[in-house]
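Hey, can you fold this one?
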Amino acid sequence: MNPAPVPAQASDRAPGLPPTPGANPTLALSGKALPWGRALSFVLVFGALYLALAACWSEGLSYWVIDMGTVQPAAWLARQLCADDSIAAAGSRITSNSGSINVLFGCEGTDVFMLLASAVLVSPLPWQRRLAGLGLSLLFVFALNQVRIAVLFFSFRSWRAGFGVLHGFATPLAMVVLSAVFYFFWLQRALPSVAAPNSGSTHAP
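Sure. Predicted structure:
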């Protein structure tokens, strides 16, 4: 049995012109082609990133990612929010006169960033757009995680009964949900910009 012919896709590009380099216009506009393949790619990319980070994690990397990249800015943010000069960064700990918390591996936001980065990397966009999306994703997750750690710090000082729920469930869930919202907004803005070069073309007579 011969397969049924596939209907031709409507296009604003005149016949004979080459497609836009680095992008499949139909795939970029619809975002629905090969959904299972894209989902599998997402899982594989996330797994590769997670294994690579776990293999490379060391005291030196922990110092730069946790002590300097997470605790220092989070302590500064907490100090600004409550004007408490006793709040300080001490290694992987945020300390104050009324309590302290210790930021461990997994609390620095890299897992959420890897989820978001995996979604960006398998998006139906040219590589330039995906690389720009990675940079925006890193900034977004970094800022979001600083707020999360500040919330946990204030919770431990003032509402210790709720610290466990906030630490283990509420704030991680909020980060994942907000990252998903960020991704879909970013994707919706990025897709029209990919299609824009085609929109001004005229139909062939």
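Residues 1-33, 199-205 have pLDDT under 50 and may be disordered. Let me know if you want another pass with a different chain boundary.
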